[in-house]
Amino acid sequence: MKALTHLSRFIVGFLFIISGLIKLNDPVGFSFKLDEYFSEAVFNMPFLQPYTLGLAVFLVIAEVFLGVLLLLGFKKKFTLWSLFLMIVFFSFLTFYSAYFNKVTDCGCFGDALKLTPWQSFYKDVALLVLILILMLNQKHIRPIVKKDSTNYAIVAIALILCGIMGYSVLNYLPFVDFRAYKVGTNIKKGMEVPEGAPQSKYNIIFTYKVNGAEKQYTMDEIANVPEGAEFISREEILVEQGYEPPIHDFFIEKDGANYIEDFLEEPKLVMFVAYDLEKSDVEGLKKLNAVAEKAKAKGYKVIGMTASSNNVIETKNSKYHFTFDFYFCDATTLKTIERANPSIVVLEYGTIVEKEHWNNADKVTLK
User: Fold this and answer.
1) Which sequence ranges are marked TM in the entry (predicted)?
2) 344 beta partners
């Protein structure tokens, strides 16, 4: 049992540190997941949505903090109870996501490792078992370092480093970009579906009103719909997920037309990404025109990308007098491209060659 306790201690501590650091590399992305959980469609707790970023930063630093404490064997009662409560909380979230199919990716390991809802839940159950083993065998958990002052110093250093990392990624860019739109990605190639790739399979359910009552029919039964029945609805239910390209939801739309082919063929393109202009940083918006004029002088095509409405775009235009046009794209896609709101993305023939936070607007490389 002693060996099992030490093994459990290492696995739990290591996973909590790795999971925390991966999410700390992109706390804004994790905050988007929490925002999904707090939305009306899931837990209906919109009053918590304004605090998701702060909560995300707290949770991921707490994961690293507890992982370090466990590996050190320091403050074991506090550590084990904290780990237990945290994994119970996460297990509830992942079970809810899996059973009700509400949030299809819990973000446990950010964009570095995608898990299905059920995989996430099973992972949390396994961790819960390991933590229970540790709680039942606390006597075998002894500090690696005997002096309390040294343990406090190690924990303090870990927290300081986490704080520095969090500050850096929130004000600039993630240290490592695990997303589909990282630098070096060709967007058109990322949208391609390989020949022979498996296709998604769906059950199609038709609902008709027959003799005053609603009745459902599958595709095989559709021929049996009686004459005069009133069509109500058609629903597609995913049975088996086929191949989905890394980039599958990118478009550049304006006035009902999609300009993706035109802009992804541009040899020099600067794209300002602001998924929500109403929430965009004021100082960031003020910097865009300067970058746009510098880019145009060097022969770049310049566009804005947002999910905001035309009314919002017009309001912001009247305030900031943008010298470029905004095009529409889905907010989730734009959040995936870049977390900063706004941010600058430079492309050459559809390949992302540079991404910058608005704080680094003056450092954008324009050839």
Assistant:
1) 7-24, 51-73, 80-100, 120-137, 149-170
2) 272, 356
Does residue 12 sit in the same domain as residue 152? yes
* Of the residues 171, 193, 217, the one at which a domain ends: 171
Which residue range forms the structural domain that includes residue 218?
A: 201-240
* Mean pLDDT, rounded, for 14-31: 93
pLDDT in tens, 241-287: 788 899 988 999 999 899 999 999 999 999 999 999 999 999 999 99
Query: Are 210 and 356 members of one domain?
Result: no
pLDDT band at 344 (very low <50, low <70, confident <90, very high): very high
To which residue do tokens 């306790």 refer? 5
| Same domain for 309 and 222 | no
Q: How is 20-49 classified by DSSP, letter by letter?
A: HHHHHTSHHHHHHHHHHHHSTTTT--GGGG
Same domain assignment for residues 268 and 291: yes
Adjacent-strand bridge partners of 253: 258, 328
Whether the CA torsion 46, 50, 55, 57 is positive or negative: it is positive
DSSP string, 71-109: HHT-SHHHHHHHHHHHHHHHHHHHHHHHHHT--S---TB
Number of separate domains in the chain: 3
H helix or E strand, kind and range, residue 171 = helix 148-171
**Cα separation of 329 and 260, whole Å?**
10
327: helix, strand or coil: strand
Q: Is residue 183 part of a domain?
A: no
Is 190 among the domain residues?
A: no
User: Which range is most confident: 32-36, 96-100, 206-210, 286-290?
Assistant: 286-290
Look at residue 189 and tell me if it is in a domain.
no
Q: Is residue 263 part of a domain?
A: yes
In this model, does residue 107 exceed pLDDT 70?
A: no
Output the pLDDT for position 128.
95
* Residue 244 to residue 329: CA distance in whole angstroms: 19
